[in-house]
Amino acid sequence: MHEIPIRSFAVSVVMLRQAGDTHEVLLLRRNGSLEGEWCQIAGAIEADETAWQAALREVNEETGLRPTRFYSADICEQFYEADRNAISLLPVFVGYVHSTAIVTLNAEHSDFRWPTFDEAVRLVPFAGQRKVLRHIQEEFVDREPSAWLQIREAEVVAANG
């Protein structure tokens, strides 16, 4: 019997902003791996980081954004990687920014956009991403997120330096 390993080495972050009476989702067009695809923020967890610290660092590195509120999304993005014969589990986080926040892309991305949830679900390439987006819309937009999921403000401030 051969077991498929489960890897949890990276994080996924969905950034939201208010646009009138709706919310928009930040999507980034990838360079390199998955070139040309629209995706949320994602990146590896470094040796000295917690998952939420990695998530905040990736948000800042990839977009220059600093969330005003930050949460564990209470869901993991999961997918099978055939080249590694492994299942990857990425904890997902949700960040909110002001509607006027300015995105500054790094070299990992060629473009960005702020689509509605319906548009974002049509743009992302993978079923797991669509599942995460639907969950976030239901739990973080359609209802007030649980206070138990919020990353404490002092921790967010410390992580953002």
From TrEMBL:
Keywords from the named record: Hydrolase
Family annotation (CDD domains): NUDIX_DHNTPase_like (cd04664)
Start and end residues of each Nudix hydrolase domain: 6-137
PROSITE patterns: NUDIX, NUDIX_BOX
Co-factor(s): Mg(2+)
Superkingdom assignment: Bacteria
Pfam families the UniProt entry points to: NUDIX (PF00293)
Keyword Transmembrane attached: no
GO MF term (any one): hydrolase activity
Protein name: NUDIX domain-containing protein
